[in-house]
Structure formats: C-alpha cells, structure tokens
Design a protein that fits this description.
The chain is an all-alpha fold and 552 residues long. It is 73% helix and 1% strand. It has a two-stranded antiparallel ribbon. Strand 1 (517-519) and strand 2 (528-530) form a beta hairpin. Helix 12 (269-276) crosses helix 16. The longest helix is centred in the middle third of the chain and has 52 residues, at 164-215. It starts with a helix and ends with a helix. 58% of the residues are buried.
Length: 552
C-alpha cells in the first residue's frame, strides 16, 4: 500500500469539501490567535501572557502543551504495532502531570518568565542565565523540528500527495504560518489556540474512538483480541519489551523510557511557561488538575485508536506505509467507509494542525524568551534594554528561531527523525529536572551544582544520542548508510538522568554553599521567601490572608 493510495479519501467533490473545511478552520484559528494577541504590548505578556486566566482556561492550555503530534501520531502507532509499550507511554504522559503538580507551586510563586528566572533563584548572575538559555535551546530545537516534520507529512496526506517535495513544501507553508502567528500574537494569542486545540482534539479523538468501539459492537475484548492478532507480536501484545527488544538491556531501556517521559514531559520549557502564566498558586495547581483530566481522556482515546488501527489496518500495513508507524491514525480513519470517515478525517486533520500550531508556538516563544530575556537583556544590554526594544527583539527571535527550525525540518524530511522528540525529552529530564528539583527542595544547591548538572547533562545526552542506534546503524536510523552506533541502549536517559543528578549533587558540594533569598514576583506576595520554605510548604503562613485562603 503506497502513501498516495492510502491518503486519497475520494475523488471530486468530497475531497474538495474536506480541503475547504480544513482551510477555513485553519484561517479562523490563525485570525483568532493574532487578534487575541494584538493588545499585548509588554515583553512579559509576550512571553507568558497577562496571568489573568481562570483555572479551567489555563488547564486546557496546559493540556494542549502535552497533546503534541508525538502523542497523537507516534504513540498511537506504537500502540498499534507493539501494544503494551505504547500503552505505558500514554500512561506516563499522564503521570508526568503528577510530577508537574510537585513543581507548580514554586514555579508560579517565583514569578518567572523564562527558565533563566528559575535558575537564577539559586544562582543569580549571568552564568545561570547562559546555562538556562543553552538548556532551553537544546530542548526546544529538536522538539520544534520533530513537530514541523509531522505537520508537513499530515498536510501532504490531507492534500492526497506522498512525494517528498510536496511534504517539504507543506512543512514550509505550515511552519511559516505558525511562526508568523507566534511572532504577531505572542503568548496571549497562542493561549487562545491552545484552548481551542485542546477542545477540538478531545472532541475529534473521542468521536473517532466511539466509531472504532462501535465497529466491534462495544466489545473491548473483541477489539483487544483483533489488535493482538494483527500486531507485530501476536500473543504478546500486552507484554513489555516490544519497543526495546532490539536493545542490549530491554528491561533497563523500558524503565529509562518511562523516567524520560515523566521527568522530561513536565520540564519542557513551554510547559513551565504555561504554569507560570497562572495568576496565583491555587490557580496553578487547579490548572494542573484540569490538564491531567483532559490529557488522561486523550490518552485513553490514543490507546483505543491504536488498538483499532492494529485491528482494522494491521501492523504490517502500517509499517509498510511508514516505518515509524506515525500514519496509523490516518490509515485507521481512512478505513472507515462513507461520510463518517471523511468527517473524522477532517476533524482529526484540524486537531493535528491546531496541536502543531499550539505546541510549535509555545516552543518558539520559550526559545525566544531565552534568547531575548536571558541572553540579550542580561548580557548584550546589561539589563538596560527598554521594554519596546526588548519586545521587538523577542519578535525577531521568534522569526529567526522558527526559520531555523523550518530549514532543519526540510533538510530532515524523508528521514527517520523520530529520535528528535526523544532527544528533547531526554535533555529536559537530564538538565532542567535536576536543576529545578535541587533548586526548590535542597538548600545546599548552588551555582556550581547548577552548572555541572546542566552542562554535564547536555553533553552526556547529546553525545550518547548521537551514538545510539536511532541515529545510525540500521535501516530505520536517521543515517541508514552509516554505522557509528557504539551506544547500544535506545535512550540516553538511562545514563544521563542519574548522571545529571549526581553531577548536581557533587558540584554543590564542591562549590561554595549559597542560600539565596529571592523576592516573590507575584503582586500578592509581599514577603521575602526562603527557598527552603518551599520544601516544607511553609510559605502559606507568610502569604496575605486572601491568598492564603485561596491556597487552602
């Protein structure tokens, strides 16, 4: 089965109707996001918004930062082909929000606008902000490229084409629209898109899941049996190891993959920015709870649709169409006959586009904040930059970073780039996670420990990923004709995450102990809060009466 025969829904009027609905919806979403962000005239509003949204709104926006094309397409494909490992990956996405709940209060209380603000809590000065910028760019760059590649593939599929040239053109067009939207609207406009995307995605995935369940007359046992029979591991569909069975230590790789997803997902820079956008700590925690519910429902639909793809299409056909399995969702919807298939295809295409717009927009804003606030403002301008000039530089940074991401996505189009999202998560888990946990909950953490953890984690993760089988040494690798895969494990997180925590601990012991008091940036917090108080949650007693009651 070829890509072209797979994605042609129908000839003539039905196909034109699908394209018309998609283009109209895309235009409305872009116009709405830009219009919503027109009144944002300060750098803070550009980075994280006005911090006035209700908990439900922030929760939907936060949920969408998790609902990326990696979850909708890649995880669905993993469920369809190998079963259990895909199901646990979807489960760990939800568990990641539980870890984020641990970070929500101190992140919001810090009043941070970028990762550099969080790192500066323990280590004020330029070194911490440079390290934060390095970590932010190292995480967001591969994640941006992975999202743009998926967007180009899905858009080409919607148009009914399979050629590499068409996919590249679609990547440029979609990427250009997303970058323009982010540059003009900022965080306020992207928040509107995130809320809309979460709502549409949940609705479309739910409708598709109900259609699949209906095909099996509501019998989940029959659905599971059919998925097992047509997977790549008949009889072992609910056994672990399918995703990592080619590695040297599949059990360790499996555990490392779960740690990477849980820690890395919660510590992505655009996710932390979304938490910072809450107006107070109580709203931040409620937002995470709302987001957990939405993401959990989406993950349930991902599992159902993955099983449905295995049962209806078959794992072999899915892998023949795309060795990464990312086409499983579209192949499943295409297998549904009549108007239902066309409606679901259009709805899911809109959901994927909105997910790309929301995630890529948030990612580029996080990178722009690192370039502008952490580097330009605190290094090049020595903190003397005026707000209008900083806002202009931030918009230019979005344009430059987004354009670079589009260029890299075009160059990587047609290659197996699935490892890029894994690299981003591994980097977040190996650099940002140890830095934040130590900063919030260990009073002996200092600048030396921070720098050791961030730079050591970055070097280890990138170096080990470059030597992994996903980059070279196999037909499915990014460089299939080369072989320098000396690292036999599937994910660098197996070594880089514990090593980064160890480096942060060792560096803190080696450096001079420094406990830094920082003033809370939230307008409702007037006292100076000691970082060690965050660990015991004792700051509640220091807050003004109104916020203390809201927190309780």
């Amino acid at each position: 089965m070829t890509h072209k025969s797979t994605f042609f829904l129908a000839a003539g009027q039905p196909q034109v109707l699908v394209l018309t609905c998609f283009m109209l919806f895309m235009a409305i979403a872009l116009f709405g996001s830009v219009f919503a962000g027109l009144d944002g005239d300060t750098p803070k509003e550009f980075y994280i918004g006005d911090r006035q949204g209700a908990a439900l709104k922030n929760g939907l926006a936060l949920a969408e930062t998790y609902i990326s094309t990696s979850l909708l397409l890649t995880v669905t494909g993993v469920v369809a082909t190998v079963g259990f490992d895909g199901i646990t990956t979807a489960t760990n996405v939800v568990l990641s929000l539980g870890f984020l709940l641990l970070l929500a209060r101190p992140v919001q209380l810090s009043g941070s606008q970028t990762l550099g603000d969080l790192f500066s809590l323990r280590a004020p000065g330029t070194a911490a902000r440079v390290a934060a910028a390095v970590a932010t760019l190292a995480v967001t760059a591969p994640y941006l490229v992975a999202q743009l590649i998926a967007a180009g593939n899905v858009t080409a599929a919607l148009l009914g084409f399979s050629g590499l040239g068409v996919q590249k053109i679609c990547t440029v067009l979609i990427g250009g629209l997303v970058v323009t939207c982010g540059m003009l609207s900022g965080a306020k406009g992207i928040s509107v898109v995130q809320v809309l995307a979460a709502t549409i995605t949940l609705g479309a995935m739910t409708m598709a899941s109900l259609a699949v369940v209906r095909l099996f007359h509501g019998d989940f046992g029959a659905l599971l049996a059919a998925a097992d029979a047509h997977s790549t591991r008949p009889g072992r569909y609910l056994s672990s190891g399918g995703l990592f069975e080619t590695g040297a230590t599949p059990r360790l790789d499996f555990v490392a993959g779960q740690i990477m997803t849980i820690l890395g997902g919660a510590c992505m820079p655009h996710v932390l920015n979304r938490v910072s956008a809450s107006k107070d700590t109580a709203t931040a925690r409620r937002s995470v709870r709302y987001a957990t519910g939405v993401v959990a429902l989406v993950c349930v639909t991902v599992v159902i649709l993955g099983m449905g793809a295995a049962a209806r299409v078959g794992a072999r056909s899915i892998l023949d169409a795309n060795p990464s399995g990312d086409d499983s969702l579209i192949l499943l919807v295409h297998s549904l006959e009549g108007g239902v298939g066309r409606v679901l295809f259009t709805a899911l295409a809109c959901a994927v586009f909105l997910s790309v717009l929301a995630v890529v927009g948030g990612t580029t804003l996080a990178a722009a904040g690192a370039l502008t606030r952490d580097l330009y403002r605190h290094l090049a301008q020595g903190r003397r930059s005026s707000p209008p000039r900083e806002l202009l530089v931030a918009r230019v940074a979005v344009l430059l970073f987004g354009s670079l991401g589009i260029l890299l996505a075009v160059l990587a189009q047609g290659r197996s780039a699935a490892f890029l999202a894994q690299l981003a998560l591994s980097l977040a888990a190996s650099t940002i996670a140890p830095a934040l946990l130590y900063s919030f909950y260990w009073d002996r953490f200092n600048r030396t420990g921070l720098l050791w953890a961030v730079y050591g984690g970055t070097i280890l993760t990138v170096g080990l990923q470059a030597l992994a089988p996903s980059v070279s040494g196999s037909p499915q690798a990014f460089f299939p004709n080369a072989d320098f895969a000396w690292f036999e494990h599937s994910t660098p997180a197996l070594i880089s995450v514990p090593a980064a925590f160890l480096l942060g601990w060792a560096g803190s012991l080696a450096g001079r102990r420094r406990i830094h008091r920082y003033p809370a940036q939230n307008a409702s917090v007037t006292d100076t809060i000691l970082l060690t108080d965050l660990r015991a949650d004792a700051t509640t007693s220091r807050l003004p009466t109104a916020e203390r009651r809201a927190t309780e």
